[in-house]
Amino acid sequence: MDTVWVFGDQLNVQIGALATVRPGFTRVLMIESASKLTAAPWHVQRAHILITSMRRFASEATALGFEVDYRQAATFAEGLADHRAEFRPSRIVATEPNSHRARSLALNEGVVLVRSNQFLCHYDDFATWARSRKHLRLEDFYRRQRVRLDYLMDNDGPEGGRWNFDEENRQPPPRRGPYPWPSALTEPLDALDHDVIASLPPNCTGSPPTGLWATSRAAALRRLDHFIDHALPLFGPHEDAMTTDHFHLAHSMLSPYLNNGLLLAREVADRAEAAYRAGAVPLASAEGFIRQLIGWREYVWGLYWLEGPSYASMNELAATRPLPLAFTGAAETRMACVKACLDGIEERAWLHHIQRLMVLGNLSLLAGIHPQEVTSWMWERFVDGAEWVMVPNVIGMSLYADGGRMATKPYAAGGAYLSKMSTYCKSCSFDHRKRVGEDACPLTTLYWDFILRHADRFEGNHRMVRQVRAAERLSDRSAVQLRATAVLALLDEGRL
Ligand SMILES: Cc1cc2nc3c(=O)[nH]c(=O)nc-3n(C[C@H](O)[C@H](O)[C@H](O)COP(=O)(O)OP(=O)(O)OC[C@H]3O[C@@H](n4cnc5c(N)ncnc54)[C@H](O)[C@@H]3O)c2cc1C
Question: Which of 23, 53, 330, 353 makes the best surface tag, with the fewest CB within 10 Å?
Fold first, then answer.
């Protein structure tokens, strides 16, 4: 009998190898690797969702008639060897894994790989598309995906005559409440949840699970219903806004389930389009969401495979500063924006995109934090952390550590951006308008210093040259650079 080895991020009977076999004729293997679980100080909610979702999936596969060998082993290789020794399968088959490391492991262990259908654009097809282009641009890829997959199309053109509604989707938070966004769906924890939580390694970090994150397909589908009915109609306009009073706005919070297989991108995008066609959701909202899902998500996936394993270690800006002590909980921060984001990670292991990019990523970029330290830290802390999505987003989009292969210019911003797009600055002891002085916003100071530090490089970038000229014209340029040195020292000492 063949065995299908199901990885913890392929938890769906419609994915790859499992989709092609029938219960009764195939055994399913799942391995919990102790070395993986103890390898890093995972956020407890991240470790919980991983293990609990795997165990529930094993029960569901059993209920469907599959014989499931669920193993707890020291390593994946050991689990595989034990399975082979006990069951002597004719072949071990797996869906193409979702990371370079897992793919190498499977191939080295003689596992037969079946083409994955977990993403809407297979990485081989992405590579073929990429090779046909002079420059890679998300917008081109996205339009191709819209046409190819037939989302929001009106004959040959885009529904509503426009491919994107980005301009409408950059609004700051509303001036005052009550905010229109729904509450997140939570469900009580059960005995399995409590068992798993009790068994997690002691070096896990963060607040324990509260029932916010789903760990079964049925519960993930309930999160999807909740999003489509209550948040999708509001998705878009305030996509980039950040407030202290509402943590997710109209964001879907579906990334963990898309990443571990409990939900499939196709079914989520279908639901968004159907809601628009039924008149329940404005076009700008449906388009904004579908763009993230069939555009950004798939683009990042394709880039991860296109760039290969060495991409993760790129450090083009030669950033060497260690992680701020506040990131690891060894110090408190006085920056309200950073504190709000670190509190969000502690509480629920999740932040929305702009908090990741324009607060924590931005500070790391401006301060020159080592890219691989940032990647590892975010990977450990986010409930949706996965190498394929973390690496391009951190190395490419956020830290410009790939020298501009993914983003045409660095996502760098001073306090003025934070003040416009968030409510954080209202309660901050720093002044976002100031770039020098003890109460100057560290982001504002570091922004100008960053541009000056890398002026030679950015001068050659037509999207950055204006900022370089503005930085060079600053009347208090020396004072800014002096203050930046002090700010970086405070950051290193955990006193910022
Ligand atoms: C520094 C940094 C680190 C990130 N780390 C991760 C990570 O570990 N795991 C992860 O899934 N996403 C990551 N992202 C991308 C994005 O921030 C999250 O996917 C998103 O915030 C998840 O929340 P959501 O489901 O509510 O997204 P929504 O705003 O509701 O968007 C819908 C879906 O679109 C997809 N999506 C949107 N933007 C991106 C993007 N840039 N890359 C890939 N997919 C995207 C996600 O699947 C998301 O669920 C990171 C972004 C940055 C800047």
Answer: 330
